[in-house]
Amino acid sequence: MSGMGGGELPVAVIGAGPIGVVAAAHLVSRGETPLVLEAGDAVGASVRKWAHVRLFSPWRYLVDPVAVSMLEPAGWTAPDPEALPTGGELVERFMEPLAALPAIAPHIRLGTRVAAVSRHGFDKMKTPGRDQAPFELVLRTADGGEERILAKAVVDASGTYLSPNPIGAGGLPVPGETELGERIVYGIPDVLGRDRARYAGKRVLVVGSGHSAFNALLDVAALARKEPGTAITWAIRRPTTARLYGGGADDQLAARGGLGMRMRALVSTGAARLVTGFRATRLDADANGITVRGEDASIGPVDEIIVTTGFRPDLSITRELRLGLDPALESPVALAPLIDPNEHSCGTVYPHGAAELAHPEPGFYTVGMKSYGRAPTFLLLTGYEQVRSVVCALTGDEAGAKAVELVLPETGVCSTDLGGSCCSSPADAAPVLVGLGSRSGEPRRRSAPELAPA
What is the C-alpha to C-alpha distance for residues 265 and 362, in angstroms, rounded to an integer? Predict the structure, then answer.
């Protein structure tokens, strides 16, 4: 059992993605000792899986002020704030330099997976003395070993990218999905790069209606223009295409609006066959390929399937903690009504921080994409504000945890098709200053660009 050199216990940060590395910067800036635990062999391991994808959020929404204040004295040059980086550029130009700073680098452990978190000496049922016990983390190392460490607090920034939703609309893999896993990719493959041979000249099915689906489809379409025989089918669960393509020219994030317009043109020209109202029930394979059965129709045969139906948090590592999770979204209970896509039709980001992210287990916080549970949209800038607030709370700065510091633009763009009116019009758009609010007051609603590939 270890802490950090036998001294004061560290704050454990799970995940060295952008939110985790920025959390380390905030902790260091306040005199705390972070211990960042990353299962991959490099920082930004999940981002590197979609390194080829260009974000539609510009650099000014992708960097953190505290991190920048640490980077600039080390000779770092800020990217053009209006430029749109790829995932790889986000890693190379922001995450790697930040993680390499002498104040942060010694506190990052790569190749170390967190297998479980509990209270040292207290199972979930035990109450007296629980809050005074340190956290105990079970680690799995790259060489197959096991280690246990203690921490005074835990910030879970492990994300959701490695926990994709299945093709089945019921939330479970459909029959045949697991068995045919080698013919399925979840997320956005590098169709025009390292995965080109896999899709060239093939019949490709893309399932999903979000921006990840748009990216995958446009890449396959670009491949089809160069590789004869490449055919595209696009299946979505929604019954119509109403608002499917987003705000178009009205979107203040031009790259996001352009993405939807390109998709509309792709379908209208017949370059991709669109199947609406499709809910997969099983996958069958024979010598001709894979047939995807639906409730009312079938698609196929196809050769490859790309599933872009979203992600979900992996809750297995926190089974011994007392968490307050919304039963539907699997986000912190207080955050759920602010981000629930079943209730809100726009790409809104509500003011929230440590108060909304807290659990019944004091000292444990879920931040970043994982804090949104199964909700589909997330903004890096929101994650940076989350960790700023959480670190303030962990260091006893109650006023800082509630401070008003998040500046977001109005976009006036809907992210889901729930009927009714959309957000404020572009004519009303302006940068706005929003605070973290509190549970005693009504949160103010503000729209913001998503963290999503362009």
Answer: 51
